[in-house]
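In response to a reviewer's request, we include the raw inputs and outputs for one of the modeled complexes. The four entities were modeled together in a single run.
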Amino acid sequence: MFDNLDPLLHSQLRLGVMSLLMSVESAEFTFLKEKTKSTAGNLSVQLDKLSEAGYITVLKSFKGKKTLTTCSITSKGIKAFEEYVNVLKQYIR
Amino acid sequence: MFDNLDPLLHSQLRLGVMSLLMSVESAEFTFLKEKTKSTAGNLSVQLDKLSEAGYITVLKSFKGKKTLTTCSITSKGIKAFEEYVNVLKQYIR
DNA sequence: ATATTTTGGTTTATAATGTAAACTAGTTTA
DNA sequence: TAAACTAGTTTACATTATAAACCAAAATAT
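The model returned the following structure tokens for the whole complex.
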């Protein structure tokens, strides 16, 4: 009847991040923070979790002299997102 | 961009329950337990929360000599479910 | 030059939530 | 009449989410 919803994706903030990353090549930390209206701390923690799971890659570099954190979704992340959406459809028909 | 997902519905078990209740007149505790593959304890707690929120009504009666708990979704619950689904679509496009 | 604020984050403490184990009360079966 | 089952509830614990507090460097104001 109901399959399990990937708990990593079943979280408002992480889902928002993944949703954004599904539609762009890559996104900066500050961009994700603005779009999701999250605090930096919360976002940082959730990006770590997605990264740990291999759903995204997080690249730290520099934009001029400022640190720059850039995130991209991985193919594993894309698969997981698509699967999550499919399972979700069992719930919301 | 992303509206908030009603935290009461953004829970696998509660969402499963609401999903089931959306498609039936009413459902017995044991029916919900089987369909959602939840433990009785967990289900009991989550039904309380949905009931507290006014999303469902919980009626206790008897089936022969056995206690019987019957749940139905309220109009408030239906609205909340529909709104949740709409918001969710912002995330999963 | 040097305080002060801002930017771009991370760490960590706390609050909120989810879950199952332990329990209650009554019923059926052996 | 004792053991096992049904139908749940309570409660203790584990997990998760979140923001406050923090850090380092850069930009700005004094």
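As requested, we also summarize the result in words. The longest strand of chain A covers residues 56-63. The mean pLDDT of chain A is 96.
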